[in-house]
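pipeline: protein-struct stage 2 | run 1193 | DNA-binding transcriptional LysR family regulator
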Amino acid sequence: MTLQQLQYFLAAIEHGTFSAAADALYLAQPSLSEQIRRLETELGVALFVRAGRRLVLTEAGRALRPEAERTLEAAGRAAAAVADVRELRGGTATFGTFGDAPDWLVGNIAASFRRRHPDVRLRLVGLNSSEIAEEVREGRVEAALIVLPVDDAGLDVRPAMEDELVYVSAEPELTERPVPIERLAERPLIFYDARWGLQDPTRRALFDRAQRAGVRLEPAIEVEEVGAALDLAARGFGDAVISSSISLRRRALPSALGHVSFDPPLHETFAFVTRRGAPLSPATRELVALAERQLADLEARRAAAQ
């Protein structure tokens, strides 16, 4: 039984003959008749009998009629709901970001999307890059902006931009010139994303460089939020490492802290991840495009400041 057959069945009731129903649907009469015949064969009953030149419903046809109407109405509602999502008139759009993505980035993406699509609910999920990559892999989030490296099994990864990691300290003499990784091994260090430890991409980049230099980094304090790490550093409990263009903004960096590049500079890569082979919904495609524009604007402003 198909929706098309039910549509033809109801059209035959409305117009009284197969030929009139076919004309109304812009079909050849044999095509409509054949589909109703197949419906009757599948159900094992006749749905119409002829009374002169018009069709009359059998008892089975009368029983089927209200069910056919409800089925086509439900199908129409389903199609309309999908159309709302397709045309960004409804539904929920979900996008993931790395956990320390700053308020301004998340806020700009959300504001731009809602201005364009006020009827679509928006859900922006912030987790550690490793965790949000797993959410994408399992299909709970369609796409995300993360920091590399992550486990890319089952994922499509598209690098978006590079950002510099910088050393921050409340001691002015420590931020007067670029700092070698060996310096960090001599200082009390404050790391964020405590729950993820070495699975955190930023921490992995630091520890990889330290390992190649033959030194070992040990955190003095571990916290979850980058803001907490900066607050503790500003109060003199240790030094921290953060992203220069994302987390390091004048309003995010306490006035007691200075910052400086590494020697040589140390970078991390932002990337978009999606589940391999899975098409994106229109809303998620729009969110990715908005995030791309925000990153492009960030790069332009960073270049202009250099």
